Automatic annotation (TrEMBL):
Entry protein name: TVP38/TMEM64 family membrane protein
Protein localization: Cell membrane
Lineage: Bacteria, Bacillati, Bacillota, Clostridia, Eubacteriales
Ranges where the VTT domain occurs: 141-258
This protein's UniProt keywords: Cell membrane, Membrane, Transmembrane, Transmembrane helix
One Pfam entry name: VTT_dom
Topology of this chain in the membrane: Multi-pass membrane protein
Amino acid sequence: MKKDKKAVFALLKDISNILLTVLLGGVALLFVLLGLEYKSLKFIADYYEALVWSAAALVFVVLVCYVIFFLLKKQSVYRLIFCGIICADIFALIFYGICATGIIQKLNSIDALREYISSFGSVAVIIFIVFSYLQVVILPVPGSVTVAAGVALFGALPCAFYSFIGIVLGSVTAFAIGRLIGYKAVCWIVGKDDLDKWLEKIKGKDYLILSLMFLLPMFPDDVLCFISGLSSMTWPYFLVMIAITRLISCFTVAYSFDLIPFTTWWGILIWVMLAALVVLAFYLVLKYSDKIDAFIKSKFHIRGRKHNGEENEEK
């Protein structure tokens, strides 16, 4: 009798999990469709029907995959899909909000964003800092658009300073979210033991690679901060590293927009060459990360942490 009750309870729990996931998928689709209805951008207006059907098909495929992996008891896979659906809900709500308010039209253009920020008059500086902050935490806005608008509004030096304030505050927030929520979320998906083993394997290298990625403007700030929160990176190291790398990148990007225009062929050529150099530099760092890490440790006499077992043996 008890076994029957447990079986019924387990079945009801499985059904409720599937229904909840389907409901969350439907919420994401609903807000995406509501956002598309505004047809705020020319691209959306031109391909409205294709975007609607694509969104519906994508949600359907994701939900079918969830059900299949759930029935196959592939826990890590269907939990990962579930987390993806939660993220889709958040971004769908943001997408609907920026479409309904008309902000998406301003975010899509440097001139429109500049006019939007300058319309706030004396508080334009605060609005710009808030935009820089949100760019890291939630807004899907390329940093180059924000900086370009800031340079046009305030000039290179003030823009770099204001961007630095907003981006550092946003980076600290994202790191805290990654540290407090990200670890628990990944533990729930893959299991604590497996996650801890994986983090132990990359321990030490994550400092070097993540620091370089923060320094280069081509990598997404928000994702990097969340990943840093999940890594072995400590709070003091992150605060020092983010202050140094953001200071360098903010001033470099701001003055680059001021000195290297996109309106000339030579300006575009320089930007393409710089992007190629960034990709090459990052590839070389990844390829020789072990040697670079060993070189830095040898120069600064840094020793890796010993495992508990090794310490006990020495004792």
